[in-house]
Amino acid sequence: MVRRVLVTGGAGFIGSHIVDQLIERGVEVVALDVLHPGAHATRPAYMHPDAELVIGDVRDVEVVERCLAGVDAVCHQAAMVGLGTDLGDVTDFVSHNDLGTASLLAALHWKGFQGRLVLASSMVVYGEGRYRCPEHGIVRPGPREAERLSSGAFEPPCPVCGRDLQPEPISEDAPLDPRNVYAATKLHQEHLCAVFGRETGAAVTALRYHNVYGPRMPRETPYAGVASVFRSALEAGRAPEVFEDGAQLRDFVHVRDVARANVLALSQPVATGAFNVASGQPRSVGEMARALAEAFCARAPRPVVTGDFRLGDVRHVVASPRRAERELGFRARIPFEEGILEFALAPLRDPLVA
Hints:
Blueprint: E1 4-8, H1 13-24, E2 28-33, E3 52-55, H2 61-67, E4 73-76, H3 90-110, E5 116-122, E6 130-133, E7 137-139, H4 146-150, E8 166-168, H5 181-200, E9 203-209, E10 211-213, H6 226-235, E11 241-242, E12 249-250, E13 252-254, H7 255-267, E14 273-277, E15 283-284, H8 285-296, E16 304-305, H9 322-328, H10 336-345
Parallel strand pairs: 1-2, 1-4, 2-3, 4-5, 5-9, 9-14, 10-13, 11-16
Antiparallel strand pairs: 6-7, 6-8, 12-15
Helix pairs in contact: 1-7, 2-3, 3-5, 6-8, 8-10
């Protein structure tokens, strides 16, 4: 097991849970976090008292270099997440995610780092998931067209015959096809870290998170995940608004399971490359919204299916977790029903700006 770990984004939703689990295992932790006002109103009270919290920007190479003293592994969680509001966010996403990763790697280079590097990646690098046509087998659908979506035809059509496709679990060797700015930056992070690994001999692992939910999620912002958006609506007494027809499939995985996947990746010296971090139990977005509303309060407003859509969204992405189980020893442990009940009652984190 590693002795001292730098966790970038260590005060955040996922990063703070990783910090907790590392410290519980006797590992020293340096948590670097800029405490961005879009994510944090104040220094979070939940930060583990034994963590060394450094308030600074991962894009500052000198700050990162100071954090690397005595570190034998790095867990890179710092990133700007979500779809954002529009293409005007592109410079912020590229700055925080791509430049932030490049600055971290530069600092690791100057320090002569050859330990383990674990990157928080995302299932968004796949674009649409894996699909099968009844006639033409496995096919890759193109981006869904606005005209088709406006008519309520949400399933991707076969590019050969036009039939609706059936989703299947996607594996790590699937073609990568990022379809929004956030997705493009996550794939670039993977590429940068892979180059660093090849050039230095450092062991690099990219964990492709699926839809993570659980305690310490930020309250609703333009960058929040769907679970946080639904939970924020319920707390405000509003019905969660479910886009499309609610049948889009995702893999919802609890944040403590995701943190445990990171701890396992940090302790497996030969497990390199990309791994899906998922429960292996897909649910529809509508099903998740209904389960959350029922767990929140018996009198809570029930979800409303709006039929609205966003062109940056994909229809179905569900994962095969087999490689992570085989090479990392990771299998999600927290059942969906148990995790949703906890999340429904957990406080959300307030950003300074929304």
